[in-house]
Specification:
This protein is of the alpha+beta class and 414 residues long. The chain is built from eleven helices and eight strands. The longest helix has 41 residues. About 3% of the residues have low confidence.
């Protein structure tokens, strides 16, 4: 623990002091909690301060020494080893120039803002040069950082206003993200940047943007769920599953991004609606499977299995994988099973239609329908590796011949 600035200076030799020095009593009233001392430069004279309206010199008295204290946020000019306040201080955001001016008799540190300037004579020129170079770098870093963060704050506030008025915000969201990215870059690009302090300043702005974006996403979720309902009502199952899959992703991303209780509650409510809609959609497919298994009429079984297959195929086409705990692998397995059931039903229906045709005078329509069922079964089997449809070309040709004969006989008798 150091109790005098002179001890910090002698310990650090003008460079970054030990970590313990940042906690010493002389600086407790001077520095913010987030600040870290980087350089301590003793002077060989006083502190000359010039403003637009006056010039004043702060001269050390007795055995006092003037110091330039350089932190990662500000530059302080103080008198004595235990100052309670600075004679002059500049935030890096305000610094427009820092340079070492060498003359015939002495060297002077010049630090300027738009409205003020300080001239300070260092005891050690090398120490002063190192500190001045640091001040120049930090003033540039802080300027870029503060400008970017101010733009981000302003844009986020505008997004909030537009949300309240129901105005489009997508362009502003992209701009806000870009400004925050610029601020992050300024905070991390240079090794001298106080990245932790700057990061703590960025976090609340980015968190607010995330909350607003999630509020935007809640509208998107509502729209997707309504799209899914409409598509489902129109038997457009692929569009329904696509909308539900996107809604799932948006809901999960929203839950991760939001800490705000009100917004999170809205997302959870929409999540419950989503869960109900997904359950209903898959229950429709399961119900179609039950109808196919229980159907006594082969034609009804074909229609039930066709509907079930259509729904599972739509889910896979929409790249459904994991939402509502239904994986793509499980869907593929279910689709293969349903497809084989559909093929079996098509074959059974084809046989039934042929038998019905045999019992009629003509039977042309039944034979044609039977042929169509068998061809569809063969087509499905050809596109599914594990499906089988024992239908020969000869069988298809026999139905063709029956249809032609029936048409000829019907035409002759007519």
């Amino acid at each position: 623990m150091f109790d005098r600035i002179s001890n910090i200076s002698s310990n650090s030799n003008g460079g970054p002091p030990d970590e313990a020095a940042t906690d010493n009593e002389p600086l407790a009233a001077l520095l913010d909690d987030s600040e870290s001392i980087t350089y301590v430069v003793p002077g060989s004279g006083g502190i000359d301060h010039t403003t637009e309206v006056r010039s004043i010199s702060f001269e050390p008295s007795g055995d006092q020494t003037a110091y330039m204290l350089v932190t990662d946020e500000s530059v302080y000019f103080v008198l004595g080893d235990a100052p309670e306040s600075a004679e002059v201080s500049f935030s890096y955001v305000d610094v427009t120039m820092a340079e070492l001016k060498s003359g015939l008799l002495s060297t002077t540190v010049l630090v300027k803002t738009a409205a003020e300037a300080v001239r300070f004579k260092p005891a050690d020129t090398d120490q002063a040069e190192t500190a001045v170079n640091y001040i120049s770098r930090l003033s540039s870093i802080w300027s870029d950082f503060v400008d970017a963060l101010a733009e981000a704050r302003e844009t986020v506030d505008e997004i909030e206003h537009r949300l309240e008025s129901g105005t489009e915000t997508s362009r502003l969201v992209r701009s806000a993200r870009s400004y925050i990215s610029n601020a992050r870059h300024a905070a991390t690009h240079d090794d001298d940047a106080p990245s932790e302090t700057m990061g703590e300043m960025i976090d609340p702005v980015e968190s607010k943007l995330d909350r607003l974006c999630t509020a935007i996403d809640t509208s998107r979720i509502e729209s997707l769920l309504e799209d899914a309902r409409e598509a489902k009502a129109q038997d457009d199952h692929e569009s329904a599953f696509s909308a539900l899959a996107e809604a799932h992703t948006t809901i999960e991303n929203g839950r991760k991004a939001v800490a705000d209780g009100g917004v999170l509650e809205t997302i959870d409510e929409l999540g419950s609606t989503y869960d109900e809609l997904v359950t209903m959609t898959f229950e429709d497919a399961e119900a179609a499977c039950h109808d196919g298994q229980s159907a006594s009429d082969p034609g009804e079984a074909v229609e039930a299995w066709r509907m079930a297959r259509e729904r599972y195929q739509a889910a896979l086409s929409a790249e459904w994988d994991g939402e509502a705990s239904v994986s793509a692998e499980a869907l593929k397995f279910q689709l293969a099973w349903v497809t084989q059931r559909l093929i079996d039903s098509l074959l059974e229906h084809g046989d039934a239609l042929e038998a019905a045709g045999d019992e009629q005078d003509s039977g042309v329509e039944q034979y044609e329908q039977a042929k169509s069922q068998l061809e569809r079964a063969r087509e499905l089997a050809a596109h599914h590796a594990h499906a089988t449809a024992p239908v020969t070309t000869e069988r298809i040709e026999e139905l063709d011949e029956k249809a032609e004969l029936g048409a000829w006989q019907w035409g002759k008798s007519g």
